[in-house]
Amino acid sequence: MNEQAVSMSAIEVLSPGMQSTMQDYPGRRGYWDVGVPPSGPMDMLALRLGNRILGNPEHTAALEMTLSGPTLKFHEACLIALTGAPMQAQLNGAEIPFWKAISVKAGSVLKIGAVRGVGVRAYLCVARGFAVPEYLGSQSTFILGRFGGHAGRALQPGDKLGLNTASGWSDCKQIYYSLIPQYRDHWEILVMYGPHGAPDFFTTEDIEVFFNCNWEVHYNSDRTGVRLIGPKPQWAREDGGEAGLH
């Protein structure tokens, strides 16, 4: 991390939410060969737009919140922006909007509740960014490896989050409404045909089914892989092959 002034206890975690972790863009890349999967924001666009609103560089670390967010007490004044899936958000008991810069006074309490409607993850960005160290070139949290981000884990009650306080960041910006992603429960995604397709593993019919049906994301999914619920393939082989690698 670049040398800069740091406020070490600007934000106190009163309640951590379901799973709140520090993530930066583009995250930790290039270490699969040593067993470290990619880390970083699940919704890269939302994090980058939050930083753009505050005038931060797009790689600035932010707090990623999953399904329900934390309750935070601000011991110093700062600017924040909330982006991503819409969650209930109150500052000192008053509703605040997503996708715009919000001024927070010292002593204020920000309470972020559950997701409203569709979507899973939202982001809390702060002007100048959170003060978290880099590990393997990134400030992103890797929970399974217990490194990166804040203490290598999700937030816990009583955590103190520092903020970068050095000057040199840009003024806040109003982003165009057209840039804000529309979250929904059905997505069409790009899939690249890989080396494990027909006819060695899947049959031709399997591939047709794969590309032409709807799949549901299983709850047991994370950054290391996404498990899908859908039609069972017939498979091109009768058994798993060597070491069950089918």
Explain how this protein is built.
The relative contact order is 0.19. The strands form three sheets. Strands 7-6-9-4-1-11 form a six-stranded antiparallel sheet, with no helix packed on it. A five-stranded antiparallel sheet has the order 2-3-10-5-8, with helices on one face. A two-stranded antiparallel ribbon has the order 12-13. It contains two helices and 13 strands. The termini are far apart. It is mainly beta and 246 residues long.
Counted by DSSP, the helix tally is 2
State the major sheet: 6 strands, antiparallel
* Distance between the amino and carboxyl termini: 43 Å
- Helix-strand pattern: EEHEEEEEEEEEHEE
Question: What Rg, in angstroms, do the CA atoms define?
Answer: 21 Å
Query: Percent of residues in beta strands?
Result: 25-35%
The total beta strand count reads 13
The amount of helix comes to under 10%
Low-confidence stretches: none
Mean pLDDT: 90
Overall 3D form: elongated
Strand-pairing-aware structural class: mainly beta
**Strand order across the largest sheet:** 7-6-9-4-1-11
Summarize the structure.
The protein has 246 residues and is mainly beta. It contains 2 helices and 13 strands; from the N terminus they run E-E-H-E-E-E-E-E-E-E-E-E-H-E-E.
Summarize the SSE layout with pairings.
Blueprint: E1 6-15, E2 20-23, H1 44-54, E3 62-66, E4 71-74, E5 78-84, E6 87-91, E7 94-95, E8 101-104, E9 109-115, E10 121-126, E11 160-164, H2 204-212, E12 216-217, E13 228-229
Antiparallel strand pairs: 1-4, 1-11, 2-3, 3-10, 4-9, 5-8, 5-10, 6-7, 6-9, 12-13
